[in-house]
Amino acid sequence: VQLVESGGGLVQPGGSLNLFCSASGFTFRNYFMRWYRQAPGKERELVAYINADTNTDYGDSVKGRFTISRDNAKNTVNLQMNSLRVEDTSKYYCNTIYDGRDLWGQGTQVTVST
Questions:
Q1: pLDDT on residue 65
Q2: 4-34 in b/e burial notation, b at 16+ Cβ within 10 A?
Q3: For residue 51, what are the CA distances in angstroms to 48, 56, 57?
């Protein structure tokens, strides 16, 4: 049972990135998925959420800029990030609750800088 994130990198302000989270070992289509982020010295922040019915929700700081989606055939959840800002710099983590416990990936670093 694991989550593996990818797609992070360095981008200029105003740019875009698409993060991917690949799930394995569980029936992905039945689970909600979340993207969190955490920067050094800051609290973990919920970025986006998608449930099994593809209902979505977003943190206030990313509404209108980020889009979460899922592909149940590929067991992946994506986070399309547009109009990136310096303050979006963080490590981004994929998450769900499996067997009553938080399941986390290893994270992928996003750096927004000139």
A1: 98
A2: ebebbeebeeeeebebbbbbeebebeebebb
A3: 10, 7, 9
Q: What whole-number distance in Å separates Cα of residue 36 and Cα of residue 113?
A: 20
Q: What does the block give as tokens for 88? A: 């979006």
Question: pLDDT per position in the chain (114 positions), as tens?
Answer: 999 999 999 999 999 999 999 999 999 999 999 999 999 999 999 999 999 999 999 999 999 999 999 999 999 999 999 999 999 999 999 999 999 999 999 999 999 999
**Cα 44 to Cα 40: distance, rounded to the nearest angstrom:** 10
Which amino acid is present at 90?
S
E strand residue ranges, the chain: 2-6, 9-11, 17-24, 33-38, 45-50, 56-58, 66-71, 76-81, 90-98, 101-104, 108-112
Question: Which of helix, strand or coil describes residue 53?
Answer: coil
What does R_g of the chain's alpha carbons equal in angstroms? 13
